Structures are given as C-alpha cells and as structure tokens.
C-alpha cells in the first residue's frame, strides 16, 4: 500500500521560506528591503512581500469603484487588470504570514516587514539611536542574521547595511533557493 502522506506532499507545491525583516522604527527596514528585493530578482528569484501594520490601513482610493463596493458592505473587494490584481478583505484577526500563504503563489521567497514579536525566522536591521542601544532580537532564537554597521555579536552572521549582496547570498544558501523557472 502506498504511503498517503507521500501523495499529499507530491500534490502540494513547495512552500516558500518566509523571512521577517524586523527592527525599531526608523532603523531602515524598508530602505534595506528596497535594495534586497531587486538583488534577489536580479539573481532570478521571484520575491513576494508582506508588510505588517498593527495599526490598520486604507489601501483603496476613496471614491473609486472598488472603494465604493467595500464601503457598501462587500466583505471582499478585488480590482483586476491585465497587469495587477488587488484585494481588500475584512478579517477577524491579525493574520500570520502562514495564514496568508494560500493567497500567494508563484514566489520563491516571501520577505515580510514586521512581525517582530512572532516566533518566526528573522533578520534584524539595527541602528542604535537614543532609545535603542541593543538589538531587539538579542535573545531571540529565531534570529538568523543581523544587518548593522555596529559590531554586535549575537552569534549570527552580521552584514553591514551596504552589503545587500551578502545577505541575498546568505538567504539563497540558507534556504537552498533555486531560481524560478517561471520568469
């Protein structure tokens, strides 16, 4: 008799690794991501991102049709074009990246900005300032790398803020990423 778990694994696509870039406000997470994403893309990878915002947000433009649909009571509103698809959906809780995976396809790696309190794989961007003298993840077992110009030993690889290529290479090696055949 065949192992039923083997069949399930065969039918399920490989889940992309999820890596959260975390750090204090103003540390440079977004700026670093804006450099890391094109470096991974240049190397042949398809990158997905999730921005975590604990305060909520308004994505749709007030007055536009999709905004009007949502504000008329639709629990889910999508806008589609030949170039993009956007979706706004009501939810009953703060979703983890793993819960959002069914909405994401065709990517080799997912980079999140935020989720610093979650127990998932993290890379911290650290710049000491007046209030933050030590990295947030100094005692976090989920920390796999530190991006900082400050020599801090957290027993993980440290990359200077200018070494986007180094971190990209580290992530590719760490997760055994292969360039996407769907480019």
- Low-confidence stretches are 1-12
DSSP, total strands: 8
The CATH class designation of the largest domain is Alpha Beta
Distance between the termini: 39 Å
Number of helices: 5
CATH evolutionary superfamily of the largest domain: P-loop containing nucleotide triphosphate hydrolases
CATH architecture of the largest domain: 3-Layer(aba) Sandwich
Succession of helices and strands: HEHEHEEHEEEEH
Spatial order of the strands in the main sheet? 2-5-1-6-7-8
What does this structure look like?
The protein folds into two domains: 4-54 and 94-174, P-loop containing nucleotide triphosphate hydrolases (Rossmann fold), CATH 3.40.50; 59-93, no CATH class. 24% of the residues lie in helices and 20% in strands. The protein is α/β, with parallel strands linked by helices and 183 residues long. The model is unreliable at 1-12 (pLDDT under 50). Helix 2 crosses helix 5. The radius of gyration is 19 Å and the shape is globular. The chain contains five helices and eight strands, in the order H-E-H-E-H-E-E-H-E-E-E-E-H.
Write the layout of secondary structure elements.
Blueprint lengths: L3 H8 L6 E5 L6 H14 L4 E5 L13 H7 L4 E5 L4 E5 L7 H4 L8 E5 L8 E4 L17 E5 L10 E2 L4 H11 L9
Parallel strand pairs: 1-5, 1-6, 2-5, 6-7, 7-8
Antiparallel strand pairs: 3-4
Structure at a glance:
With 183 residues, the chain is of the alpha/beta class. The protein has helices at residues 4-11, 29-42, 65-71, 97-100, 164-174, and strands at residues 18-22, 47-51, 76-80, 85-89, 109-113, 122-125, 143-147, 158-159. The chain is globular and about 55 Å long.
